[in-house]
Structure formats: C-alpha cells, structure tokens
Amino acid sequence: MFSVFRDLIRYNIEFTIGVVLVGVIVAFSLLSFASPVDPTAIYTTIPDMPPSAEFWFGTNSRGQDLFWQLTFAFRNTLFFGLTVAVLSRIISITVGLTAGYLGGWTDRTLMFFNDIFVAIPIFPILILFYFVLRNNLDMMKLALIMACFGWPFDARLIRSVALGLKHREFTRHAVFAGMSPARIMYEEHLPYVMPIVFSTAMANMIWSIGLEVTLAVLGFTNINVPTVGTALYWANNHSAMVVGVWWWIVIPVVLIVMTFLGLFLLAVSMNEYIDPRSRLRRMGA
Amino acid sequence: MKDYLTFALKRFLQLLAVVFTGISVAFFVSYLSPISPVETIIGRVAGQSAYSPEAIESLRQTLTELFGLNVPLHERYFNFLGRFLVGDLGPSLLAFPTPAMKLVMLALPWTVGLLTMSTILTWLIGNILGGLAGYYQNSRLLKAFGVVAIGIQPIPYYIVAFLMVIIFGFLWPVLPISGGFSMNVRPSWSPEFVVSILRHAILPAASLVIVGLGTWFLGMRALVSNIVTEDYVTYAELAGVKRERIVSSYVIRNAIVPQLTALAMALGGIFSGTIITEQVFSYPGLGTLLVRAVNAGDSAVVLAVSCIAVIAVATAIFLIDLLHPLLDPRIKAE
Question: Which of residues 184 through 203 in chain A touch B, CB cutoff 8 A?
Fold first, then answer.
C-alpha cells in the first residue's frame, strides 16, 4: 500500500498535485474544530469587511467571519461527499461482485435494476425529496438518498472486472478448496477491484458535492447548515456580486474548484495507475 | 434484421420498465408531501373575502374530489397510472386550474431544444478535438487544450453559468442574459423571432458546452491514444494510408462506440445541468417551471415535471441504444 503511494508520488505529477490540493482543503476544514465562533450565529462581527489581516477571508453581509464560516462549510461538504461515496461504494461493490461472480439470473436481475437506476435523472428526484421533506432534508438524509442513486455506473464497472476474475485459476482453486461464494467475493475478488473502488470514489465525491452545491444554491436544502452550497446561496441572497462583496463568492468558488480539481486529479491518476501499460510508460520502462 | 428487431423490442421493454419505476418513485415520494393542494387553494380563496363555514366545507369536498384525494392510496396510485397514460396529472396550483401537463408541455420545447443543441455540439466538438489530440500527441495547441480541459472539467455547472452572466451581463454586455426571447418580439415563425431565440440561447448553451466539453475531450483522448498503438494503425501508416483517413475512419470510428455509450449514461446528468442553467439564465424551460412549482408548493406540476424528465431521459437513452449496433458491426444485437 505504502509503496504504491510512493510510486504514485514519484512518477505521477497529477497525483502529487491532487494530494496537495485535497490535503490543503482537508486541513482547512479540520481548522473548524478549533474555531472560536459559532457558525450558525449571525452578526457576530462587522459585516462586509474585505479580506484583511484581522479577517483573512473578509466578513459577509450577515456579519460572519468568512474564514471560520468556510472551515465549517468545507467540513460539512467533505463529510457529506465522503458519506455518499462510502455508502454508494458498499452498494456498488456488493452488486458488482455478486452479479459478476454468480452470473445467470442473479446477474440479469441485478443489471436490470442497475440499468433502471442509470436512466433515472436524479436531479428532479432530489428536488421532489426536498419538496416533500422541506427543512427536514438534513445532510444525512440527503447523503442516504444520493447514495441510493450513486452506485450503478460503478457497479457495472466492478461487475466487468469480476466477470474476468471468475474464470481465473485462483477462483477455481478457491472453489475446490470449499470456500463459500461470499468468502470468495470478499476475500479473493475484492482486493482486485479496490483500485477501481478508490478512483470511482473520488469521481463519486465530485458528483455528489456538485449536486449538493447545485441544490443548495437554489435553496433546496436546509440553508441553515453551513456548506459550500449554502455559503453561495446566502451570497446570492444578499446579491454579493452586485453590491461589491466579491470575496463572499470568489473565495468559496476558488476553494471548491481546488477541491474538485484535486479529487479529479486523484481519480485520473489512480485510473492510470490501474492500467499497467500507461503506468509503465510513465515510469519510463 | 430479425436479431435487431428482438434487440429493439428488449430495449423497448426496458424503457417501459425504467419509465414505470421512475414515475412510481415520483408518485410515492410526492404522496408524502405535507402540503395539501386543497388547503392551499382554500387558503387562497378564503383570504380574499369572508365565506360561511358551510361554503368552505363544500369547497373542500369539491376540491378533494377534483384532486382525487378521497380514495385510499393504492386506488390513487392506479388512478394516477391510468390518468398518466392519457397525459392528465390534474390541475396545477401555480396557474389554477390550468392542467399541470399543459404547463409542462409549454416549457418542454425550450428545454429539449437547448439540451439537444448543446449536447450534440459538446459531444461532437469534444470527441473530434479529443480524437485529434490523441492522434497528434505532439501538437502544442492540443496539449494546451488538454490542460485547459482538465482545469475546467471539475467546475460545477452553476459556477460556469454564473461567471458567464457576470462577464456577458455586466462586464461586456453583448448578449442577452435572461429569458428565452426578447420581450418586444411576437412568438411566431418570423425571422426576428427565430433570431431572438437563437441569440438568447447562445449563453445558456455555451455554458453547457464549456462544462461538458472536458469530459468528452479527455475520454476520447485516452481512448484514441490506446488505439493508435494497435497494430492495424501502424500497418495502415506503413501502407501509406493518408493520415486524415487514418484519424477519421480507422481511429475515431473505433473509439466513438464507447463514447456513444457514455453519452447515453451521461444524459441524466446533462439534464440536471440544464435545470440549473435555466435557473441562472431565467430560461423558460422545465427547470424554471420546476423551481417555481417547488417554491409555490405545487405538487401536481412537480410530479409532472419529474415524470416528463424521466420519460425524456429514458427515451433519449433508448434511441442512442438503438443506434449502437448500426454503428458498430462487432456488437451483436443482443
């Protein structure tokens, strides 16, 4: 595991940049635990102060220190993305490995549902959920709903790998040794799909965070929870760009673009690492 | 041919299953809505002047019947399915008593037009540039484009659309930033109207193209750079086939099939993108209608938009799937 990481850092500049970007954002969000202010309180400082030595990121029109506010926003957003990624990975690994290894009717049924889930446009469904739950739609519920929709692409990918593994010799040995299908899947096949799981997890985080930001910007989540989306929502609500409080929009946007870029580079470089041909080309072998 | 028809029939059954699941989910989710359309209308009516309690009570009964709320859930579900087949989803609240479906049908052409135009443009430009970048790997220009594409690709729709509004609305106001057509043009098939529609579509479409381009570019470049190492390409080069011909019929032709699959899979996401784009540019499509309906608590319209969205996306995927075996003879219609 560690040697993989070392190789990636050494030979893959994209991976290094990705690690640095994501690392900076994670460190920034962790600062929220040391925050001196309550993120839900408003008018705690002078509103509309531009970035300065006292307020690094300025203050917004609601009288909040943007620096600390955004640490909370990023903590919530990253945690949300991670929750969706972990939950949907569990579904996609289970479905993908089961469908690939068992085959036959199980495979056909699972892939049938898989294709249905791929085809359902999620955004109207999410808006429908907001419409029904209103402010009860907290981050946890939203994460659960999105996890239910975020697995089918990756399940198909994992299935295609599992299909190949099924006919390898070690699987047959395992069967003859009397391993149960469940143990074969989790002990023998799971390690082979782990790289895919990691790289799709990054892509999944980009997807879920992007949707969360989009929903929140429209005001379709609980707008009192600080996230990147709700930060932008409040900025729009106070017409930040028009009244000249540009830092209220520009700083979160720059930070979220850094997050997305970092995650994207991690996903891309891991994808490349999975393919031995491009890995060897990069190492100059 | 017979194989192809069986394949088409199977895909069609799958389409029906997708639509059925989608609208059922939409129905049951919207059933949980705490907002009763009956009470909303009564509140609206009663707010205007004083009515006797009996009048209100009989209004309540009439409305309950009108919305079909006086029967148990399973019966409502079958009613819903039956009425859905004839395209009736009940009256809207936004513009009571205009049928919700009528509002949706008014908004649908805008969204479909914008979506089709920008998706086809994005897909073509992205794949052609990506194909060229994968083949001519030493081109500085295409390399630079790749870096830009990686940079832009992860930015969410909303931010790109918003930046375009700021740039073209405030800094350099040359293009209209809101609405579907100019206020002073009468909707008809006159040249002014068409030009007005096109001018208004430029910015929303451009934002969608910019955001979507990177994915196709990068995907195609990766595919093509794998294909150019294949023996048959080297052989064609040695045999003196013209480079343009190698790129177009040997390389891109082979790489386009997975990209077509990816397009079918990406459609749902593209649809989400148009909703936010419409909202930012106040484009009179489904997205704007959906947001207005949510804010007004109009469950009929929300349900209608969700159902139409499911049908539209599923149908588009179905059509792309049908194209598949025609494009790639290696794929047996199965």
Answer: none
